[in-house]
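User: tokens in, sequence out, please.
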């Protein structure tokens, strides 16, 4: 679902993109695709039509095991995202809400994420 927090944070990212810092940081990962990628991403999320996007009705059809990891300080989504995912999927779901972590747990807390993913995979039945 698209939350007000998501829209306001992406609008702020768009403002920051006009300065050099964010654009340069993104260019390290996306090179010559940075402009197209950023404008496409922010344009979709900030469009009025996209405000209705919501995959929650589809969650019951997800029956495979799910490990949901979110940073407690995620600037793009509230814990409601994690709550709805956990409650909505049709199969087993484990959730981890990481303290002192924002939008990119795999980058901000790589060791903790690796341990969590490894433990999750080890608990899965073989086959």
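Assistant: Sequence out:
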């Amino acid at each position: 679902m698209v939350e007000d927090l998501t829209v306001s944070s992406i609008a702020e990212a768009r403002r920051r993109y006009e300065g050099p810092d964010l654009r340069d940081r993104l260019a390290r990962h996306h090179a010559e695709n940075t402009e197209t990628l950023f404008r496409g991403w922010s344009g979709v999320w900030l469009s009025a039509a996209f405000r209705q996007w919501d995959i929650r009705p589809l969650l019951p059809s997800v029956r495979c095991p799910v490990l949901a990891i979110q940073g407690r300080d995620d600037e793009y989504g509230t814990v409601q995202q994690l709550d709805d995912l956990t409650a909505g999927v049709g199969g087993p779901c484990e959730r981890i809400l990481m303290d002192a972590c924002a939008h990119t747990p795999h980058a901000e807390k790589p060791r903790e994420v690796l341990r969590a993913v490894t433990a999750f995979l080890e608990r899965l039945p073989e086959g």
